[in-house]
Amino acid sequence: PPRSTLFPYTTLFRSAYDHWGAVELVQEAWRMGLGVPERFSLVTFNDEYPVERTCPSLTVVSGPTREMGRMAARMLLERIKRKRPPRHVVLPQSLTIRESTGPVPA
């Protein structure tokens, strides 16, 4: 059977924190004859090169990564120095929809 029949899903949400991993996933899907987003959609994090320049360009969720790092370091130091309990912090995120996502196939 063709290699694409080995992929049983009609749609898939795949999240790759490492944007290079997402780029490799698109390339491997192409090698297997699986269209993105025709067979599955792909969303990644970290809106950095080359996600906008891949074919198809990748849909991304992005946030203030430097602020996340600063806040994590500050919270860790607070816990070590003052024995403070952990806190839950929510930072703003944004979704940039590009070519790697599409409607669920019929």
Tell me the radius of gyration: 18 Å
Shape verdict: elongated
Question: How many β-strand stretches?
Answer: 4
- Count of helical segments? 2
Mean pLDDT equals: 80
Strand order of the largest sheet: 1-2-3-4
Strand and helix order: EHEEHE
CA-CA gap between termini = 22 Å
* Strand portion: 15-25%
Largest sheet: 4 strands, mixed
Model description:
With 106 residues, the chain is an alpha/beta fold. Helices cover 29% and strands 15% of the residues. It has a four-stranded mixed β-sheet, covered by helices on one side. The radius of gyration is 18 Å and the shape is elongated.
Summarize this entry quickly:
This protein has two helices and four strands.
Summary tags:
2 helices, alpha/beta, 29% helix, 106 residues, 4-stranded mixed sheet
Q: Could you give the topology of this structure?
A:
Layout: E1 13-16, H1 19-31, E2 41-45, E3 59-62, H2 65-82, E4 94-96
Parallel strand pairs: 1-2, 2-3
Antiparallel strand pairs: 3-4
